[in-house]
Amino acid sequence: MPLTVGTAGHIDHGKTWLVRALTGKDTDRLPEEQARGISIDLGYAPLDLPDGRRLSLVDVPGHERFVRTMVAGSTGIDLFLLVVDAGEGARPQTHEHLAILRLLGVDRGVVAVTKADAVGPDALERALDEARELVPGSEVVAVSAKSGAGLNELRAALARTAIEGEQADAPTRLYVDRVFSLRGIGTVATGTLWSGRIAAGDILSAEPGAREVRVRSVQVHDREVDVAEAGQRVAVALPGVERKDLARGDALIEPKAYDISYRLDVELEELAPIPQRALVHHGTSTMLANVVRVDRFAQLRLHAPIVAARGDRIVLRAGTTVGGGMVIDAAPPRHADASRFERSARGEVLVHAPVRNAAGRWSFSDEWLEELREEYERRLDAADPLDPGVPAPTQDWAAAVVPRLGLERRGAKLYRRGAAGTLGPREREAAELEARLGLEPVKVEDAALARFLERQGRLVRTGDEYAVSPAAYEQARTVLFAELGGSGRITLARFRDLLGVSRKTAQLLLERFDADRITRRQGDERVLRRSAPRP
To answer: pTM to 2 decimals?
Structure first.
């Protein structure tokens, strides 16, 4: 079974330097990280062990401002590599990172006492003793990323600790931690594969939102593979998906395999004071929740939907880490008394969910239906006014239940009856955007606003983030047809010169004409499609 190891430790204790020395890869890829000399985002590298195994290594930032990012990188890891500066010893983020690892159930790892060449023998021995007391039962190794001393011993200690456990036989689940676009490939999402397998051609569901996506190709540490296994760092190419349609915290899952819920029942690890509102860290997502606590249990009433499963770990933060625990019900009804939490912990069904009888008919309780209706009303209250709908349920019972919710189904979404998108207070913003539009594409940061205005005929989108005015689009279309009517073909350079615009503008317009099925690319030229609508 592939395993993932995550770094932990205070800022400037040498995590990224140690990763570079172990793997040969600099995980500080952002210009700001290189300029400031600190890690800001997650970094990844393959780590080869002496016995021939390869671990996936996640390097996390150590600054207290980036604890949210640290938690996102630590979920799904199997082992920790705690880094402690020999001269400074354990510092505040050392202790908080250890607390987070404990709450996430990550109890196996190795402690690296770094910068061992910068202190004397007595000081180094004291640092090693303190590290052993800090994490009892874990191997502690003195290393120097600068000289290379102790690196082989550290690799050997990681190999001894990386004892393979049983792989969970669960449906595919990958929490996204990075999304980017590559020319010729399109949108790529990366994350640690929590369970299941992913192969080219697989159809997955991007949640929340029930968006169907197809996997074009799969890579593990920049190498294309036929199949990615649970525990590996995975990059999947997703054709037809815009980069802005996915974000850190989303999940790629086997369709209909997991509940999408606004509530979680958890059994708390510690009985420390927890505020009534806290940030919930799960997978790579972070969201605000109202906390209803009864003794060692709590119900988290989330402000955004989540993909979770029984046995998952969560971390609660309110300025600092205040607690965490294990999910005992990933889609519970509303309750706040101890007996119902305890029944939930035993796995009992508290509300009669839909059941199909022998005749194929669905039956469900009025209580369950009312709770579902309340949940959808709350989600609709928080919906974007531009598109005031929410994803419709995709479970097998949806066709029987949705008509009884008092809502209107349009495609894959549910709306209140007669509801329509509106700009509301954003009318002024839309008018200001329209005033800037012309033939040169204008960058539009809000894709939802751009789609709304395009449906109203107030702009034409070009590419993922740009738009031109409808008049400019028609002007470019007229020029295109005039040229193709004569020569039958047009190059990017010729189109640029005819319009008197930049190469980038000409390319964005031609790509829009390709998407509108007006033109088709042949090598470096465009030709008119036979089915293209004539002006």
So the answer is: 0.61
Mean pLDDT within 73-83: 80
At residue 165, the pLDDT reads 47
Q: Please report the pLDDT score of residue 66 as a whole number.
A: 52
Q: Could you tell me which of 509, 372, 525, 491 has the C-alpha nearest to residue 440?
A: 509
Residue 132: phi, psi to the nearest 5?
A: -65, -35
pLDDT at site 63: 56
Domains of the chain: 4-161 (3.40.50.300), 173-253 (2.40.30.10), 259-345 (2.40.30.10), 356-415 (no CATH), 436-528 (1.10.10.10)
Of 232, 252, 230, 251, the closest CA to residue 166 belongs to 230
Number of H helices, E strands in the chain: 14, 33
SS3 314: strand
Distance CA 187, CA 179 (A): 7
Length of the chain: 535
Give the separation between CA 12 and CA 478, rounded to whole angstroms: 60
R_g of the chain, CA atoms, integer Å: 27
Q: What is the pLDDT of residues 442-470, one digit of tens each?
A: 998 888 899 899 999 999 999 778 999 99
393, containing H or E segment: none
Q: Is residue 9 within 8 Å of 62, Cβ to Cβ?
A: yes
Q: Are 197 and 236 in contact (CB under 8 A)?
A: no
pLDDT, mean of residues 23-34: 66
Q: How far apart are CA 3 and CA 57, in angstroms?
A: 9
